[in-house]
Amino acid sequence: MSLDTIRARIAEAERDAGRPEGSVRLVAVSKKQPNERVAVVLEEGHRCFGENRVQEAAGKWPEFRERFDGIDLHLVGPLQTNKARQVFGLFQAIHSVDRPKLAKTLARLAQEEGHCPELFIQVNTGEEEQKAGILPGDADAFIEECRALDLPVQGLMCIPPVEEEASLHFALLAKIAERNGLSGLSMGMSGDFEKAISFGATHVRVGSAIFGERTG
Ligand SMILES: *Cc1c(COP(=O)(O)O)cnc(C)c1O
Q: What is the pTM of this model?
């Protein structure tokens, strides 16, 4: 699907939800996509991209940054603490803050570097064992802990279980965000971003619907 089509669908979902135009940010998830496809989307003027692996991002984005201004890169996948420093020079946002040890490492690096990417706390709304994220019951305390560390927490992120109705998870994430006074909601992917927008998503992470099937 073309970038224009996705943009039009986002705008329509904003209107349907009675939300201001432009209130949803499109994070184009370019992981495992050939560079030619990513370059096409950059040439169309899009600047906000998502990657799920630090290594992969480090291999392709410095070159794109030489060719295109204003790239806004978001890490949407798990982050190991030993790769955290690398993230500071590469990403403008992290959507996967999911444990106290990582929060402490980010706080220390933010002190040393004098800046910090925007942060989203990942919540494991489906309480799935194999999935990263703080459990819903621990979310309030963890948000508090991140704030006590002076981390710039922008909002929450979730990846609903594949076999479940995503709406329940979007609603739960929105509720946790609201009671903690957080405005950012990173939720919704290729198959359900319009639904996520109706539940208040501020950031949708759309990959295959823009770029096509992933390779590699
Ligand atoms: C890959 C990925 C996406 C994009 O998924 P699509 O179904 O291709 O839109 C979104 N969020 C995360 C965390 C991902 O890893």
A: 0.97
